[in-house]
Write a structure and sequence with these properties.
This protein is an alpha+beta fold. The protein folds into two domains: 265 residues, Alkaline Phosphatase, subunit A; 157 residues, no CATH class. Helix content is 33%, strand content 25%. The protein has 19 helices and 24 strands. The strands form seven sheets. A seven-stranded mixed β-sheet has the order 2-24-10-1-9-5-8, with helices on both faces. The two termini are 21 Å apart. The structure holds zinc ion (ZN).
């Protein structure tokens, strides 16, 4: 082999992959921002690489589920993180990884901190699946996780609680967690020892500037591992508040990317030395500005049933538990004899703003809708093939999930990968429950749920919640299937 080829091969082998997840990056606003000069760094990546407008996120479209799918290459029926809020039957309590302080306060602040910081990664994510960090570690390669909510890996790290938080919660100040070899999680664990961007009012370091500063340390010291996942959390908050077309939010995220590229001097060097993968984690649907129109209050719809109060936990006579994930919700029946799921479905169907109502019945899945008549019944392994190589048995009104049948093929409309995503959600955890998802324009509400009037919301099955852009630059290979669940296999092939 001549020197040139050897260099090329070596270069290819050693090119570290940097994956930047911009929470709630969406195709429409990103294109607009790039066209109007507000996102030069992302435009650079798009021009030098390849832009895919429609990557499919898993359902529910909540970050914890999305990130676990991304890291494990499985949907939630395998990885077992069903959303931000869910009822844990084994522990007989509602788990909440952090929706809103009102809700957390009612559930117990200490429990929420514990669930978010430790339990999700340490106990809730199934041990039957492996994360990309664990896979790379067993391949003898190292990886970094910077401010990602899901971080499980093989290397022990100490998560350190700030004094005040330890004092308030009476949780141990240090706890060992298993994470990627290089690991940053706000102020709790970090690469760069400085306190910049790490204060209480800066979300304890879980912010874009801190993510960039930590990654910059690795780039600067030539310490990048084979794979780094870097999380930019801020755009999500802005879009919740300002709506889908918040271009200023994209501009801010882009400025952070520019800071990273500037470390190389010439931006082309950033591409020559690294593979850059940039993506959103979920989209957001628009939300009506008027409370009366926007809010679907599940407590009102189900007012003839006794619903568990958050503060009390399950009390005698309770029939229903609500676990609201913004635009989707799990509705649990505590006793199928007195509160059968079939009886709840028509009650929920009375609200036309709920477009998907679904539950398991024996080996099948039933889907109904507030706006369409009839019923769709499906299960895996049937005569209809979809574009992802999955086959389905389908009976009843296929319009409910906007499906189109052509010969032996089934195509998806406004609910991408609808069948597998619904299936995974219904098999994600124990319990007798229905799931509901709202049409764009609306948010579901239980006790203490946040609402985003005139802004955006997510969690739903609809494409507005689901589709995100993906930009791949610095490599000539691309994923063959544009679903989040399929990315891990491709990432591993890039690294190895
Ligand atoms: Zn959000």
């Amino acid at each position: 082999m001549n020197m040139d080829n050897e260099m090329k091969l070596k270069g290819k082998e050693n090119k570290p992959v940097i994956m930047v997840i911009v929470d709630t990056l969406m195709d429409g606003p990103l294109k607009e921002a790039m066209q109007t000069g507000m996102a030069p760094a992302l435009k650079f990546l798009t021009e030098k690489g390849k832009y895919f407008p429609n990557l499919v996120a898993p359902f529910p479209t909540m970050s914890v589920n999305v990130d676990t799918t991304l890291l494990t290459g499985t949907y939630c029926h395998e990885h077992h993180i069903p959303g931000l809020v869910w009822y844990n039957k084994k522990e007989n309590r509602l788990v909440n990884y952090g929706t809103h302080y009102r809700e957390l306060w009612k559930l117990g602040f200490i429990q929420a901190i514990e669930d978010m910081l430790y339990n999700m990664n340490e106990t809730h994510i199934s041990r039957n699946v492996t994360t990309i960090h664990e896979d790379l570690d067993s391949m003898g390669k190292s990886s970094a996780s910077i401010n990602a909510l899901v971080y499980r890996g093989s290397s022990p790290h100490s998560l350190e609680l700030p004094n005040l938080l330890a004092f308030l919660t009476e949780l141990p100040q240090n706890r060992v967690v298993k994470a990627s070899r290089i690991f940053t999680y706000g102020r709790f664990s970090k690469i760069d020892p400085s306190r910049r961007y790490q204060h209480f009012w800066q979300k304890l370091g879980v912010n874009d500037s801190s993510s960039v500063q930590q990654l910059a340390q690795l780039i600067h010291h030539n310490n990048l591992p084979s794979f780094s996942i870097v999380y930019f959390p801020e755009l999500d908050q802005r879009i919740h508040k300002n709506g889908r077309m918040d271009l200023a939010g994209i501009q801010k995220a882009d400025q952070q990317m520019q800071k990273l590229f500037n470390l190389y001097g010439d931006w082309n060097k950033a591409l020559a030395q690294n593979i850059w993968i940039t993506l959103g984690d979920n989209g957001q649907a628009w939300v009506h500005p008027e409370r009366k129109k926007a809010v679907i209050d599940l407590r009102e719809i189900l007012s003839s049933y006794k619903i568990m109060k958050l503060r009390k936990g399950i009390a005698e006579g309770d029939q229903i538990i609500l676990a609201v994930n913004d635009r989707m919700a799990y509705i649990y029946s505590l006793d199928l004899n007195s509160t059968p799921l079939e009886e709840l479905a028509p009650v929920l169907q009375q609200d036309k703003r709920i477009d998907v109502i679904s539950w398991k019945k024996e080996k099948c899945i039933i889907v109904r809708s507030g706006e369409k008549d009839g019923e769709l019944t499906f299960h895996p392994k049937g005569m209809y093939q979809d574009q992802y190589g999955q086959s389905w048995d389908l009976r009843g009104n296929i319009d409910i999930l906007d499906l189109t049948l052509k010969h032996r093929n089934v195509d998806y409309g406004v609910y991408p990968d609808a069948l597998a995503r619904l299936y995974s959600c219904l098999y994600s955890h124990e319990g007798d429950f229905l799931i509901v998802s709202a049409k764009p324009g609306y948010e579901l509400v239980g006790e203490g749920s946040p609402v985003h009037l005139g802004g955006g919301g997510h969690g739903g099955l609809h494409e507005q919640d689901t589709l995100v852009p993906l930009i791949v630059a610095g490599t000539p290979t691309y994923p063959d299937r544009l679903r989040m669940v399929d990315l891990k296999k491709w990432l591993l092939s890039l690294i190895n």
